[in-house]
Amino acid sequence: ILLPNISSIPPGFLPNVTAPAWDSFKKFLGCRPGEKFNGLAKIKQYFHYFGYIPNSPSNFTDDFDDVLESALRTYQQNFNLKVTGELDQQTLNKIVQPRCGNADIINGTTTMNSGKWTAFNTTSPFHTVGH
Amino acid sequence: YSFFPGNPPPRWPDSKRDLTYSFWPGNGLTDQDKSVFTRAFARWSTVIPMTFTETDSFNSDIRIGFFSGDHGDGEPFDGVLGTLAHAFSPPSGLLHLDSEEEWVVSGDVSTSSILSAVDLESVVVHEIGHLLGLGHSSIEEAIMYPSISSRTRKVELAQDDIEGIQKLYGKNPNYNGSSPLTPAIQERETNGGQY
To answer: For B117, which of A1, A3, B23, B125 is 20 to 30 Å away at the CA?
Structure first.
């Protein structure tokens, strides 16, 4: 949908009929390492998609395990959030924001930190589909 | 700033400084829609010695299209918000935008009554950065920061973006270093955000 003049469109002309893609993640607020929460595998898939978890998506469980905590910490560092390793309000607010589909970490290398590359302790290639 | 992995990082070869771009014919974009891309490309060509010219042939260096869901590159779009667009590293030249978004072509996106409205130029400027070889940046003010809220406009290259892209391609000799914007673009933005 391309809106040629947004200012001329009256309120309610285009109803918001669909929930944004990651709205359901808000229910994970307060989840902490060691807990299990129904659907948490989906947030692992999110982190996998953007390069923070190297495992295959088929392996994901609903456990808040070390893999998820590590991904969260790296994500929080990359987005200049307070590094807590938990699904706190500031982190969830950032996670549900619309974003570019390109991964933040490619081939186990994060390049988001200003002016330098940081190698991670992984040799598994992931999310390499030509981006 | 950051680059895609590689040593040296991928970039357009020296023989390719005047790139062509085209739009997927099936999208049927209007001239007004296309002008958003013209402005976005101009923001980058202001700071580096590269030019971008639209062509009718979809055999161009850069190919742009709006698609929904699974569109054949293994990176399906996910409907309203979520992922908005993606672009491939040089010299692939592919820029894909999620056609299910409510893209704002003109007007003040910040006052939109549509909560999920997304400013098209803001996203296109970001994706062109990828097409040229930039990865994501941790600096929130940078164009290459990965996320953007709906109803937000962010189109000006930050110093971080400029330093990164000039490391790949050098500096546009006409760029004075004080402002990344051409006077014409700057004037439009200070006159109420209308184009």
So the answer is: B23
